[in-house]
Amino acid sequence: MQTSDYLSVIALIISAISLFLSWRQYARDAGRLKLHIDYTSEMCGGTFCLEITNIGRRPVMVDKVAVLTFDEKEFPVSENRFILDESEPKK
After folding, report:
1. Which one, 56, 59, 72, 89, has least CB within 10 Å?
2. Using only C-alpha atoms, what is the Rg of the chain?
3. Which segments of the chain are extended strands (E)?
């Protein structure tokens, strides 16, 4: 094998590593939401507290928050748009 063959194999390995690192950085920077629900049941009239946290690095805009029950009924929790920055919670 010649020197150019070795250099092309090394360049292929370096570009594969670069592609992996770029994908990993993109995946880490994406905005992701984490939901936490506390529910208290008092026979028929229970209450719940919903907390949304952005666990990604980019800001996320939330348009609408609603709760969907087992019988496919939708109850709106928040109709207002809001932006969550990195690690910012909203109750």
Report:
1. 72
2. 23
3. 33-40, 47-54, 60-62, 65-68, 74-78, 82-84, 89-90
Q: Read off φ and ψ for residue 74, nearest 5 degrees.
A: -110, 125
Phi first, then psi: give them for residue 49, nearest 5 degrees. -125, 125
Tokens 């952005």 identify what position? Answer: 54
Q: Spell out the residues 6+ positions from residue 65 whose beta carbon is closer than 8 angstroms to its own.
A: 50, 52, 76, 77, 78
Locate 70 and state its tokens. Answer: 């087992």
pTM, two decimal places: 0.55
CA atoms within 13 A on the CB side of 10: 6
pLDDT along the chain (91 residues), means of 10: 86 94 83 74 66 79 78 77 71 74
Rounded to an integer, what distance in angstroms lies between the CA atom of residue 53 and that of residue 88?
6
How many Å apart are CA 39 and CA 16, to the nearest integer?
Answer: 48
